[in-house]
Amino acid sequence: MFPEVLRLLPAIDHCDHFRYLSFFAMKTNFLFVSAFALLAMVSTLSAQESAPDEAANISKSQVEAYVNAFNKGDAKALAALYAEDSQHTSNEGAAMVGRAAVLDNMAKYFAKNQGATLAIEVESARFLTPDVLLEKGFATVNDETTRYVCSYVKKDGTWVISELDETTLPPLNAASAALDNLGWLVGSWKDNSTDGKVTSTVDWTNNGHFLRRSYTIANEDGDPTSATEVIGYDPVAGAVKSWMFDSDGGFGEGTWRQEGNKWINSYTGTSLDGSTTTAQHITTYVDDKKYTWESVNRQRDGEILPNIDRIEVIRAGKE
């Protein structure tokens, strides 16, 4: 490149000569910086992709040390696995900041929970940079399981925990237990409300993860209205939730809570015209042949609506 430039110089006046050399210097510098940035990017990608076995081995070693220290109730050994400026955040939002805080908190924990045991299942481990490793997995202490995300950093040749965040998972049987309490709804039902005859059928979806309810409302002044409701357990909210869709173009969502033999569904619906309704639908179990339903605290776009009085709902064919 340089000989070609030198041959051009005699044909360029002094000012153009200076501008050309300045442009060439800038272009050369840009190419150098770009090449340096590209090398840095390639280095980072190599750290992420080229050593999965090394990341897994480091993760395994760290986890084994952590589990051994925990199961021995050794708060000092456990705290030594954290960086001096580390942070450990629990599902409740409580944070242990710094190695000293980890030591203090874990010593108090072991004093109150002698014999507590920890098991860890690593889901993934990968390098973010050559000195930063990200690990995800599940930790189980006695019967409580948390999902965790752990960042390790390499300091003075030793891998230590920089940040650890935990999220508590609901018990594995929480969903089935919650829905089993509504299992009595399965079957066909009918009522004779003042707004028209309502019939419904409830059944389980495949694998029993949801209840599906189909409604038909026979209005005296028009065509029947139909609706479909799906009831299931939301593990994030830790509650039973439902989703409703009707043939008029409306839809809604509700969150259920149980009080004895009564279920209260805090419901929010949206009509085809965009108006929003809120209400609390109350379903009360009487026996296998009958339940009652009512709706209170009803509003549409902030305007208070009258309650719907209690209606008896009878299992079809078993009055």
Widest beta sheet: strand line-up:
7-8-9-10-11-12-13-14-15-17
The CATH superfamily label of the largest domain reads Calycin beta-barrel core domain
Structural shape:
elongated
- Strand residues, percent: over 45%
CATH architecture annotation of the largest domain: Beta Barrel
Biggest sheet: strands, sense, closure?
10 strands, antiparallel, barrel
Number of helices: 6
Description:
The protein is α+β, with helices and mostly antiparallel strands. The chain has helices at residues 2-8, 14-49, 52-71, 75-79, 99-112, 174-180, and strands at 82-89, 95-97, 118-129, 132-141, 144-155, 158-168, 187-193, 196-204, 210-218, 225-234, 239-246, 251-259, 262-270, 276-287, 290-300, 303-304, 308-315. A hairpin with a 5-residue loop joins strand 1 and strand 2 (95-97). It starts with a helix and ends with a strand.
Topology:
Blueprint: H1 2-8, H2 14-49, H3 52-71, H4 75-79, E1 82-89, E2 95-97, H5 99-112, E3 118-129, E4 132-141, E5 144-155, E6 158-168, H6 174-180, E7 187-193, E8 196-204, E9 210-218, E10 225-234, E11 239-246, E12 251-259, E13 262-270, E14 276-287, E15 290-300, E16 303-304, E17 308-315
Parallel strand pairs: 1-6
Antiparallel strand pairs: 1-2, 3-4, 4-5, 5-6, 7-8, 7-17, 8-9, 9-10, 10-11, 11-12, 12-13, 13-14, 14-15, 15-16, 15-17
Name the descriptors.
28% helix; alpha+beta; 17 strands; six-stranded mixed sheet; 3 domains; 6 helices; 319 residues; Lipocalin; Nuclear Transport Factor 2, Chain: A; ten-stranded antiparallel beta barrel; elongated
